[in-house]
């Protein structure tokens, strides 16, 4: 299995997904989303991952490379390939599926408790776990037609969606401590626009926040990608 990651900025990478890929012996390749000529032809059991970034889907009409990226993602959707979208990635997929993407009055940036949808927990065979997950977004979307909801937070009614071949996360289950610091360092001006109910200090007070989010992400990935058996690396 090859995992093709469309990356929008260098500092927002696949995070825990890199570790997970190595553990299962999967190849993971980064592709600069701003260079559509470099997009590979997806074949076999290739998985497309569309990562986050500071852009907005609302910029798409006047941004040529984003239009080409949307075409590439849409082709993968039509081919029923496994696709994972994270933050901006999930917003791109939601837009392609025909739903509205709009802006929050106050950004959701930091750690906030997730309320998982019961159908999602049942379909992915994961138990209820009330833990904070990391968020870093200013845009939200309605539930795309033909998908099921993943969960919600106080500020964001739709925190993701899924089908048998699409998995969209509005939040960041893949984020590492280093990745969070990179976001803070590069998007520091945006932090002032955030809703103050969201906890920015969680990882400093309790580094276990990141580990807990990875522990939640792992079985979801393995169920979605139908990976089971013994890992290559512990």
From TrEMBL:
Cited CDD domains: GATase1_1
Source organism (scientific name): Jeotgalibacillus alimentarius
Domain of life: Bacteria
Protein's UniProt name: Glutamine amidotransferase domain-containing protein
One of the Pfam families matching this protein, by short name: GATase
GO cellular component, one term: cytosol
Domain Glutamine amidotransferase stretches: 25-177
